[in-house]
Known about the structure:
two-stranded antiparallel ribbon; about 30% strand
Amino acid sequence: MAGVILGGPEARTQRVLGDIVVSFQYINGERAMCVWPRYRTGVSAFVLLDSGAYQYADDTYLMQMAMQIAEMWGEGQSRHRALQIACAINDNLEELVRMPPPPDHIETPTQGESIGELVIKEGGKTIGSVEVPDLAPRQLDAYVQAGHA
């Protein structure tokens, strides 16, 4: 599956905080903060869209999500790692919400017909499913990361 290009020419700004990379860019026509581990390959980046940033102002929610991100990155239930992730997100929320709107040349994706269904299984049991819209390949991962799936 194709994905979103993180950092590089796609990013508005990017910074490294210890071993966590924080990139600000536009995904699906929306401001986004992308967070991923600098030295671990093969793990997913966490994408926080501006439309959901308000939730991360709540410390309890922020820490719950940071624990989930640490697990997603293969770092288990490490509270220390979750705190590092939470600090990286919290310290950069203001920059996310202050980013200017996307430039005119960035297209907002349009949803076409369904190209299939994404099914999520745990232990052989289906725990969720969603129709996958026909988006450009570079937009599909961001669509899933943004919580549409």
